[in-house]
Design goal:
The chain is an alpha/beta fold. It has helices at 14-29, 49-59, 103-106, 150-158, and strands at residues 6-11, 37-42, 74-78, 83-88, 111-116, 130-137, 140-147. The longest helix is centred in the first third of the chain and has 16 residues, at 14-29. Mean pLDDT is 82; it is low at 164-174.
Length: 174
């Protein structure tokens, strides 16, 4: 992959963050399961990372509770076609602790791994397919999505602007 695509938008309301999570879930659900998918979520506390994951999981059909894995560090959700591991690395002391979380098991085909606070693991995670950076912006949020692989490129090419994004350009910026 030569260059990564980068996409940015304003998310005016929590519903926009949820819509983005649902859209990502739809694109992941249509992906070939020949390899795992890694999505890194970054941003300050309260920026909407867990909101995005909750919507992602609900869009796939999960009807139970979706908790931030701040204390458990890992939550696993099983679906017919694949499994989702939601990791929160905020409390990780160093990247060697990934082994204790079972991260190696999640790097097999059939897994979608969504990691909050990926910077806590350094390079041990590998290259994320997508990096989704959420941040505060006025009374809403902003998002920057960057691809790290060809799969991530394809996802960005298929994303559409959230309803609250107005007339902004939500197409890839390479």
């Amino acid at each position: 992959m030569a260059e990564s695509s980068r996409l940015s938008a304003e998310l005016g309301a929590e519903a926009d963050t949820a819509a983005l999570g649902a859209q990502l879930a739809g694109l992941v659900a249509r992906t070939d399961r020949a390899r795992p998918v890694l999505i890194a979520l970054s941003g300050p506390l309260g920026a909407g990372k867990t909101t995005l994951v909750r919507s992602f999981l609900r869009s796939l059909g999960h009807s139970g509770a979706v908790r931030s894995p701040t204390y458990t560090l890992v939550e696993v959700y099983e679906f017919t076609a694949f499994n989702v591991a939601h990791l929160d690395l905020y409390r990780l002391g160093d990247d060697s602790e990934l082994e204790f979380l079972g991260y190696r098991d999640f790097s097999e085909s059939g897994w979608v791994v969504i990691v909050e606070w990926p910077e806590r693991a350094g390079r041990a995670l590998g290259t994320p397919d997508l990096t989704v950076a959420l941040d505060y912006s006025g009374t809403g949020r902003s998002v920057v999505i960057e691809s790290g692989t060809d799969w991530g490129e394809a996802v960005i090419a298929n994303l559409t602007a959230p309803a609250g994004a107005g007339d902004q350009d939500f197409s890839p910026r390479i």
